[in-house]
Amino acid sequence: MSRRVAVTGIGMITAAGKNVDETWKKVLSGESAIDTITRFDISDFKVSLAAEIKDFDPEQFVEEKKEVRRLDRYSQYALAAAREAAVSSGIDFKDQKLDRGRMGVIFGSGVGGIETLELEITKYIENKEKGASRVSPFYIPMLISNIAAGHISIKYGLEGHGFAPVSACATSAHSIGEAYRAIKHGYADLMIAGGSEAAITPTSIAGFQNMTAMSAATDRNEGLLAFDRRRKGFVMGEGAGALVLEDYESAKKRGAEIYGEIAGYCANFDAYHITAPEPAGKGAAGAILGALGDAELENSKIGYINAHGTGTPPNDRTETLAIKRAFGDLAYGVPISSTKGAVGHMLGAAGAVEAIFCLKAMSEGILPPTANLRESDPECDLDYIPLFARESKAEYALSVSLGFGATNAALVLRRID
């Protein structure tokens, strides 16, 4: 069995907006949601910038108010994005006639509930005599990286195929790809897929800064400089992205609005280093070519690439080489952008948010720019759409996600007219 897979629902929450439309408008403008960290004291940190979600009220997304205190921030974001995706799908998930055993969830997080981890360990250490009794009974359920998927399945009564990938910054691209495969090959008819992250916390920022992966810039407009010769590292973002994937024929039959189609997917490893990409881009190129092969699509058909584009010197250089390896001379004619300069690097949520950006770009005929790209780098000499959005008639887009652990993912997405 091989079926087409439609996207019938989309949802997100980012530092640039509380929903898809708010975020998309900000991304197209070329503006950045990156700013000085306010969530904790940064006086002892070299890193001072992040893309924080401000004025977030989790009670808008959780029916039982007492449950809010039992959810790590990353699960709150996941439920927010999933709700928007569920509503936009037009499906009444309370309908008792739904075949819930054919509906599932694949939704992950790169880090999981690290804010909860920090808070509960601090309680334990600071209460030397009664530390153990101070730890919350909800500590473990709030912490684990599969709990957001669990909450989504419970909220919408989805009893079918599902799990929670944990693959660093490729997590939610893997979520979408594996959900696509489940529908394509007949294991499910509908899936909610995506990822969530809330890792703007003291130990998380300290860990990334001390491995020199993050930008130490203080100017918010010079923080994440993807493909720019001045780039010095990534800036962390937070939030979630969620997609409702559905058997294409079923979606058409029920008259659903179809935002696009997942046409191809590949996941692989560099097998090179735990954090550094393979210098020649072989692994990433392999993922791109694998996704094109899965879609049975020539590389000349790709009209837009949403690059991983983290603003770290090794990533952007290697990703440029990977695109050249996969596209040959055609690489110079493909419009490419990194949207992380607008929303920060959302780690495990990045792939889902960026896949939605690809769908919006194709359906609206406009490609998002690479924010803050003002000084070109000879090593990154492709068409990286600097500063301003660009009109396009792209029918196919490619989304690339790369993660620590030498893991890669690529998704091919198609416009549906």
Mean pLDDT reading: 96
CATH topology: Peroxisomal Thiolase, Chain A, domain 1
What Rg, in angstroms, do the CA atoms define? 20 Å
Structurally, how many domains make up the residues? 1
Tally of alpha and pi helices: 13
Number of strands: 14
CATH architecture: 3-Layer(aba) Sandwich
- Amino- and carboxy-terminal Cα gap: 25 Å
Residue share in helices? 25-40%
* Classification by helices and strands: alpha/beta
Quaternary class = single chain
- One letter per element, helices H and strands E, the order comes to EHEEHEHHHHEHEHEHEHEHEHHEEEE
- Order of strands, main sheet, comes to 5-4-6-7-1-8-14-13-9-10
Unreliable sequence segments: none
Name of the level-1 CATH class:
Alpha Beta
Overall, the morphology is globular
Largest sheet: 10 strands, mixed
DSSP strand (E) fraction?
Answer: 15-25%
The fourth-level CATH homologous superfamily is Thiolase/Chalcone synthase
Short précis:
The protein is α/β, with parallel strands linked by helices and 417 residues long. The protein is built from 13 helices and 14 strands.
Structural write-up:
A 10-stranded mixed beta sheet has the order 5-4-6-7-1-8-14-13-9-10, with helices on both faces. The model has no long low-confidence stretch (mean pLDDT 96). It starts with a strand and ends with a strand. The protein has one domain (5-414): 3-Layer(aba) Sandwich (Peroxisomal Thiolase, Chain A, domain 1). The protein contains 13 helices and 14 strands. The radius of gyration is 20 Å and the shape is globular. Helix 7 packs across helix 13. By secondary structure, it is of the alpha/beta class.
